Amino acid sequence: MTPFYENITNDLRVFYTEGLHFPAHLHSQMELLYVERGIIEVTIFNETRILSKGDFAVIFPNTIHSYDAKEEEEPSRSIISICSLELTGDFFKKLTSYCPTTPFITKEQLHPNVSSAMLELEKEGREGDNRNACRALVLLILSRVLPMVELAKNRDIENYDLTYHIVSYVAEHFQESMNLTELAKHLNVSKYYLSRTFSAKLNTSFNRYINYIRANYAQTLIQSTNYTLTRISVDSGFESQRTFNRAFKEIFGLAPSEYRQRASTTV
Fold first, then answer.
1. What are the pLDDT digits (tens) for 147-191?
2. Per the CATH hierarchy, to which homologous superfamily does domain 161-265 belong?
């Protein structure tokens, strides 16, 4: 699985991912998902849909979303593009002022330009550094996709939802020391109510959720830097090397040192 995390700073990140599982999260960029094969369950805000080969989803900025690939004979494979709003040109206002009532587009509805552009966008991001070409491909995708979705005026409904506040706060502060009691105090709710919210809305516990976010951030650092594992553990917000090793292995099936060794041999 190729992970991504909330604090994204690049203009554009495009990558293939197989068997993607990622808990509820959000970021200020637009996200595009194209399913190449298999089946994946996608939840965007309060709507869940099973997507299969050829289906597409558009995730507007600051919208909670999650992924849960379904077990099949072959793992699902998708292209994900996370785009800065600086690349969206004249579509910027729509993306920040509106939200889609249904952000999913079926294979039958999707214009063939979109799948081709997603493939080219991934290739351009991997092989080149042509910002103008990437921008042109993003604009082509949006010009085909946005007319296919009904847009409603964004009334910031999410801002009044506790789940939104949980995900947003963790996204900004996961590198800091944090526990359920402190988070409940910050959100002005009881820790028992907060615990039930994690279970009912995020289908996980507080500890597992924050460990997942931290471990995925750590995995990105392992792949993209030469930092020591001790530094990565601290930078990712883990309270100890032992907790880091345990959480990382539980999520990725390998200890951090084993993962780094395997990653270095596949470069």
1. 999 998 875 554 457 888 888 889 889 999 999 999 999 999 999
2. Homeodomain-like (1.10.10.60)
